[in-house]
Amino acid sequence: MKKIIVLLSVLFLTLGLAMPVWAQNDKAQQPEQKVELTEEQKKELAVIHEDILELKLEMIDKHIEYGVLTKEKGEMIKAKLQEKAKMMKENGYMPGSCKHGHHKKGHEMRDESGQ
After folding, report:
1. In 10 A of CB 42, how many CB atoms?
2. Inside any domain, residue 15
3. Residues 1-46: pLDDT tens digits?
4. Position 50 in a domain
């Protein structure tokens, strides 16, 4: 009798732990809905993205000023940020529209010293 209780307990525990994984896999396999932003939504996102870009560029300038980054490195980072902002604008400020694959290759902005 004890063996049956132990086996049933193990079975229910195993199924209970596996259920969230199955539920998560079902969600992952569902295709994302195609959403079209209105012009008003695009304008609102544009303002936010421009504000964020300005602040990031200002922060890079401060890092250069304080000696945290070299001028060359800072300018390279700023150019990448501006390029990304341009791509976001061209793609209607939709997340996940970056298809150039650098996420798989690692950070290309790092130099040989790992910084």
Report:
1. 15
2. no
3. 777 777 667 666 676 766 666 556 555 566 667 888 999 999 999 9
4. yes
